[in-house]
Specification:
Length: about 450
């Protein structure tokens, strides 16, 4: 999700970290880069310019706190401002007995999100129930029943009943044994008087703790006016931005929602029922720019100071996680592993049996994850993975959107490769030559 924006912002941060001194010219350059990357993600022009102006002003005016260099300070300012631009604080849904009303236009993803929320609470050990109050669209009830049955979550509704208030009133007589009541409602093409009336009635009956507006990310900056209209008409308590997986405009949607002051609570990242993530602007920005958190970022800023010459040595010297990363990238660059196995018939023979396609795809996904994990490490960590203690592993996992177990698994694999490299270094000249033939960097 948002790979383009992420790599653009990563580029901005890297550039900044490489500068010896940050003056007004450098800041202008950085501001332009940020503008370019955000505009490409459909962020509203006015918001973009406000953001870069704040970054420039703060960077020039504020004195770095003691012990912090000016460059580190600018990095911190850029990070801080990006976080507040995309929503400031995380506001997860409380894990407790609650009632949730989902509202949104046609096709925004309400019904799917109702199912995702049911699963979300189910995983947290609560008992959800779904209520089908979309009485407007034919087959809306059946869609929800289908979702409920895959989850083993009960669905209450009255197929054929046209009055959603009646459906909800009757449903509430049967929901007391459940912890979380999730109500799906009918959409319209636009937020009109009819829809406002209907949702207000539902809300009066339900007395929902959460009135969540569902909005698709592919609207980009157009999410702004829509979120504002729903907020003003219905007093929403938050937003769920869906379809973050399928668009380059997610940055526009998130920043526009943040600007309305209605917090984004969750994001939908796929059609499947587990494709729902808690939205935390800090973690989100960290992930975009490829660092576990600000501390990791600043650590990197410190290391860059002494390290540029050393880095060169690293690449030619011993086997590091960077080298390992290059290899992973090369494998990815050569197309998929699956293709490689097909291209090199010897591999099939070597293994004896044909590798199942799913297994190869699984391996490929794993490699990609490893790439993200290594991308979240500082140069020092890549060079001497021994320094990776529990808290660093935690940071890297968060920053790369993977689990701590993934990080540990990668470290184990790296350790094995390193051992192998050592053995080959001693007596494996032939092996090295062979691997070179296959285009693998040694
Ligand atoms: N890729 C993707 N598709 C989604 C997501 N959420 C919903 N959809 C799809 O969007 C379409 C409309 O969803 P639906 O829940 O029926 O919307 P509703 O009309 O608001 O109830 C369906 O095809 C869903 O599979 C998401 O996060 N990612
Ligand atoms: Mg629906």
């Amino acid at each position: 999700m948002l790979e383009k924006l992420g790599s653009a912002l990563k580029g901005v941060m890297d550039k900044l970290l490489k500068k010896g001194y940050v003056d007004a010219d450098v800041l202008d350059e950085v501001a332009k880069d940020i503008q370019r990357s955000l505009l490409a993600s459909d962020v509203e022009v006015k918001l973009v310019f406000e953001l870069t102006k704040t970054i420039k002003d703060r960077s020039l005016k504020e004195k770095p706190p003691a012990g912090v260099t000016q460059r580190e300070h600018v990095v911190r300012v850029v990070y801080d401002e990006l976080v507040s631009f995309l929503g400031k604080e995380a506001k997860p849904l409380p894990v407790q007995r609650t009632k949730i009303l989902l509202v949104g236009l046609f096709g925004s993803g309400k019904t799917t999100t109702a199912g995702k929320l049911a699963k979300y609470y189910q995983r947290k050990g609560l008992r959800p129930v779904l209520v089908a109050c979309d009485t407007f669209r034919p087959a809306a009830y059946e869609q929800l029943v289908q979702i409920g049955s895959t989850l083993g979550v009960p669905v209450i509704g009255e197929p054929g009943e046209k009055d959603s208030s009646k459906v909800l009133q009757n449903a509430l007589k049967q929901t007391s044994k459940y912890d979380v009541v999730i109500v799906d409602s009918s959409g319209r093409d636009a937020l009109d008087g009819e829809m406002i009336n209907e949702v207000k009635k539902l809300n009066a009956i339900l007395a929902a703790e959460e009135r969540l507006m569902v909005i698709p990310a592919d609207l980009g900056q157009q999410a702004g006016p829509q979120a504002r209209a729903f907020r003003d008409a219905l007093g929403i308590t938050g937003v769920i931005v869906t379809k973050m997986d399928g668009t380059a405009k997610g940055g526009g949607a998130l920043s526009a929602c943040a600007a309305t002051g209605a917090p984004v609570r969750l994001i939908g990242v796929g059609e499947k029922l587990d494709a729902l993530e808690e939205y935390d602007p800090k973690r989100f920005v960290s992930r975009l720019i490829g660092f576990g958190d600000l501390e990791g970022l600043l650590e990197r800023a410190k290391e860059m100071k002494i390290d540029e010459a050393q880095a060169q040595k690293l690449v030619t010297g011993e086997f590091t996680l960077d080298e390992f990363y290059n290899q992973i990238k090369q494998v990815k660059g050569a197309g998929s592993l699956a293709q490689m196995a097909e291209m090199i018939p010897g591999i099939g023979k070597l293994i004896g049996t044909k590798i199942p396609k799913e297994e190869l795809e699984r391996q490929e996904a794993r490699m990609e994850r490893f790439g993200h994990i290594i991308g979240s490490m500082t140069p020092q960590e890549k060079k001497t993975p021994e320094v990776l203690n529990a808290s660093r592993i935690k940071r890297i996992a968060a920053g790369s959107g993977s689990s701590e177990q993934d990080v540990r698994e990668l470290l184990k694999m790296f350790e094995q490769s390193r051992k192998m490299m050592k053995t080959m270094g001693k007596g494996g000249k032939q092996m090295k030559a062979l691997m070179k033939q296959f285009g693998m960097k040694m």
